[in-house]
Amino acid sequence: MKNIDVDIRKELLKEHSKSNANRIARYISNDPTRFDVLMKLFLSNEYRVTQRAAQVVSMCAENHPGLIRPYLKQMILNLRNDVHDAVKRNTLRILQDIELQENLQGDMTDIGFQLLTSAREPVAVKVFAMTVLANICKKEPDLKNELQIIIEDQMPYASAGFISRGNKILKRL
Questions:
Q1: Are 161 and 127 in contact (CB under 8 A)?
Q2: Most buried of 18, 27, 79, 92 (most Cβ within 10 A)?
Q3: What percent of the chain has pLDDT over 70?
Q4: H or E element, residue 100
């Protein structure tokens, strides 16, 4: 993948594996132009492509956090769409490690509470949403009570992963 004209979409569709995602992330590296191509694919409505791009976006954001900043609003609003669970999971995984600007907190709070209270969401999505919301609570303490009630409400019926993260979050609140 040394050629600058590599078709990232084609590479994503070659195979669904961590090694392929790593290879694409290494190719993109810290290049904002390549990352922009990846983000267009990630935010598209092509189900399989967005699913596979999700892991690469997460890897790139972890290795080069500055790349993700210009896309935060789009990523948050994209969570309102009917997107693959991998898109939700990886978006929230990224957001849990980022201090959100004030202008993004309202939308993220609404979406986070919707995801956390939904019976249809997988545990990983709920756990990452819980962490993002807990981070927002540091700046918006009025939300702590609502988050605490929702977590405590779900604990008796939750998975071990949810309970573990829930207990950590409740101690932080």
A1: yes
A2: 92
A3: 97
A4: none
